[in-house]
Amino acid sequence: MDTDISSTAAMEKEFCIVGGGIIGSWAALYLARGGVKTVLMEQFPMPHTRGASHGLSRVIRLLGDDNLAALEFSYAEWRALEQLTGQELLVSTGLINLGPESDEYLTKYMEVVKAGGYHTEWISADELARRFPHVRYPGLGAASDPSGAILLAHQCVAAVQCEFRRLGGRIVQARAEELEERTASVGVRARLLSGTTQVF
């Protein structure tokens, strides 16, 4: 990470994103794409295990959210980033959601997915045992989501941050301590690795 940033350079930044997980990293990247000078602040060396963006994989799926447009956009953005970086980030696996046949949650989201033009089906307990012999939950069936996939978590964060840097963004390893009122805005007071404090 970039850790040596001068006060002058810091004060020129128009936005400071606190938290370098996947949400903060994408927010910083979108600002950079818009030509906005941006600092992304993360207190721990990346990759680390202290947040929701760590680990080998995270699930992404259509079955489980009302806002299919946002999910479609997310899938498209990950695929576009794969093309840009030449890395595999999203691995299509398909997904099954276990539950009783009368489960209101699964029934609702199967209807949402079907209304969006995507395939989904209910798999009975007997059919589930036939298709997936290693999955045995007596009395439970499953709603299928062929579009389900996994995101390679560490690689995803690194790829977003790499593109952010390519567009001129700076990543600072520092801990945000407090917001500080300034003349025309609110700054973030942070403690750098050196132990000194700085306002972004």
UniProtKB/TrEMBL annotation:
Keywords: FAD, Flavoprotein, Oxidoreductase. The keyword Phosphoprotein does not apply. GO terms for molecular function: flavin adenine dinucleotide binding; sarcosine oxidase activity. Residues 15-188 form the FAD dependent oxidoreductase domain. Its cofactor is FAD. InterPro entries: FAD-dep_OxRdtase, FAD/NAD-bd_sf, MTOX. It comes from the Eukaryota. The keyword Oxidoreductase applies. Belongs to the MSOX/MTOX family. This is FAD dependent oxidoreductase domain-containing protein. It comes from Haptolina brevifila.
